[in-house]
Write a structure and sequence with these properties.
The structure is a homodimer. Chain A is mainly α. At the A-B interface, helix 1, helix 4, helix 5, helix 6 and helix 7 of A face helix 1, helix 4, helix 5, helix 6 and helix 7 of B. Chain A binds a DNA duplex through helix 3.
DNA sequence: TCTTTTTGTTAGGCATGCCTAACATATTTT
DNA sequence: AAAATATGTTAGGCATGCCTAACAAAAAGA
């Protein structure tokens, strides 16, 4: 196996949103749907973070125009709502792909999706969404494909060479530890 | 859209490897294949990071038993090689899924995969690998499925309701900005 | 009204992981 | 051997993002 991706690794830190910021926005969005009079302390409770930390983060988010704060009440500008909805779509799409199509246990699918949602590009998000949308349709080819995959998935023959077998075998070997 | 995933978000920081550590290990693994006499300064050059930072990180990785250092020469214990190979498989699988199957441009597929590789669980990694392996096989159902997906992907009708359409439309709307 | 409780705010600390500057120790080169 | 270069090491700084402690201001209850 060869790696020639070292030039990409630093882009990790150059995302529109950090993991922390993402969850502030998602939480604020969610809480605003229940009650539009939202204060910092409510966000703190919901995130399980101290009021002080939330206060400081909200101040920064406010400077970045990602949240609006007026008389201690929080709201989201349109721009942020767009961001939140895109991230939420990426998460939801990944959860469906992993749990429904690939059969990954729900808790794991959710945790994994939650970790990567804000890191996926919009291109990837859109492509994944169309793919999942297609996989969920009741086209004959899709149903046959999924049926065949289930069969394959449940009884994969390690003796069949297929170009990726070395990888799957290394995965299995490692998991025995 | 409802969010009930707030309880998961803190798990983000509780990974086996940080993004930084992951790339140290991947880089060391890669460099050791070219020359087994590997020094910290070589790693620094490859990662584009100062020698000092690399030195400090290697000391920590060494304390965690993720790398071995003997007379200024770096090597990887078996345990780390397993980790590296699993991460590399996750990355490779995601790149193939995104670029080959979903048609995401290579640079984007690579960047995205690079960002999430270390965050995907082994369960997800294995499931994705089997899925991609299946998608790459020349089964008739797979070929028909992919052909139909291409057709669908290139000319999706937004008027068709399918449960995920609201999402795809919100994505498209947002991207117009 | 006065007290208690809830919020908001500031300050100092800690861990991660990068940086530059400075110095120490090899290792080459001349 | 002496000078030049490469490599290792330590110290101090900075940004992110969390923490606790302490205090201020506002809201609620007696």
């Amino acid at each position: 196996m060869e790696f020639q991706f070292e030039q990409y690794w630093k882009e990790y830190g150059e995302n529109e949103l950090s993991h922390s910021e993402t969850h502030y926005l998602l939480t604020i969005y969610s809480l605003l749907r229940k009650d539009d009079l939202l204060r910092a302390s409510t966000v703190a409770k919901e995130l399980g973070i101290s009021r002080n930390a939330v206060h400081l983060q909200l101040k920064k988010l406010s400077e970045k125009k990602l949240v609006k704060i007026k008389e201690n009440l929080i709201s989201l500008p349109k721009h942020s709502i767009n961001i939140v909805e895109k991230v939420a779509n990426k998460r939801q799409t990944m959860i469906v792909l992993l749990s429904e199509v690939l059969g990954v246990p729900m808790h794991i699918a959710t945790t994994d999706s939650c970790k990567i949602e804000h890191l996926l590009s919009d291109d990837t998000g859109e492509a994944l969404l169309k793919f999942v949308q297609f996989l969920r349709s009741d086209r004959k080819v899709v149903l046959q494909f999924l049926k065949e995959f289930q069969k394959y998935y449940l009884q994969c023959d390690p003796e069949i060479g297929c170009g990726l077998c070395e990888n799957i075998h290394s995965m299995e070997k490692v998991n025995e530890n």
